[in-house]
Sequence to fold (365 residues):
Amino acid sequence: MTAEIIVVTSGKGGVGKTTTSASLATGLAMAGKKVAVIDFDVGLRNLDLIMGCERRVVYDFVNVVHGEATLKQSLIKDKRYDNLFVLAASQTRDKDALTQEGVEKVLDGLSEMDFDYIVCDSPAGIEKGAHLAMYFADHAVVVVNPEVSSVRDSDRILGLLASKTRRAEKGEGPVTQHLLLTRYNPARVAIGEMLSVKDVEEILGIDVVGVIPESENVLTASNNGIPVIVDTKSLAGQAYSDSVARILGEERPLRFVEVPKKGFLQRVFGG
Amino acid sequence: MGILDFLKRKPEATASVARERLRIIVAQERSTRGAPDYLPMMRNELLEVIKKYVHVDLEAININFERDSGHEILELSVTLPDGKPAAKGATQTG
Ligand SMILES: Nc1ncnc2c1ncn2[C@@H]1O[C@H](COP(=O)(O)OP(=O)(O)OP(=O)(O)O)[C@@H](O)[C@H]1O
Ligand SMILES: [Mg+2]
Fold:
């Protein structure tokens, strides 16, 4: 069995790739899969913080690529799920420290260790780091915000996924594309201030796999080093759970895309 | 501003502006994806030539690039301004 490789990418920076990678990896682990999540943002290590394992990083991705440590030594086991592992980015090397052969070796190594899924958290941009993160992917989660530059960049990324990946080059069938719309604010959409789900789907010509509402719980979760999907009470956490289920093939209706209508009692008594 | 004005205040529905701009730019960028780097410059030079005959701006010139089984097709279309048929513009202005 070879592991399924999922890249989380966007083009534009700061749209929620790392937040999504952490919740996607954790969600897959919650579904019983054996998962590794790799931080491709060499030089800027962040995923470890969002996963809450920053103090346990000894060896990183670049160490493995250069044969300075084994995969076993470098994978950090998650505190909550035994079947979830993090491979941190190097903070001291520059982005040239990764090579295509090196990345392939690590991914093959993980496959041999019987991982079901490998989640690759891409750096922003369309340069080497982003290219390497997507090159070996079987599936892509393209993270987009309802905002002009993010939508335009995600269209470029969709184009690159269709041409600059191993699957495209070897004619092995397309990389499955999942569009994930995050930081969505239904109230602003309702008054015409923000692009709607339908707008984004029409412009890009693909349907969303999920919509994550703008939510203060995301910051709380990152403050605590707990992926927001673990916070099952938060709307963002629930929306991530739905999205992971859909990526695994389940059908679930979209939630949290309308302005919540308060009932009469709620309006009177608040809540 | 009175309270009625405040209540009647229309939010700025800028999402529709964003949607239209994105529709156009995404379509344009898709049509020239993988096309040679000289396209934007060529488009600009074409504009200079066309301007001698008709007043159009850069947005009116659409370039479509297609590649299929060994052929590369460059398709060019120019949207002429309203009320100025091409022939008339070409003979009378410039
Ligand atoms: N649904 C959301 N609601 C509110 N804030 C969010 C949401 N998703 C992400 N954020 C916030 O947006 C910021 C950027 O998120 P994140 O680091 O995941 O983006 P990124 O795409 O990985 O950035 P980079 O391109 O720098 O790697 C963070 O502060 C995060 O807390
Ligand atoms: Mg990131």
Notes: Residues 15-31 of chain B form the longest helix (17 residues).
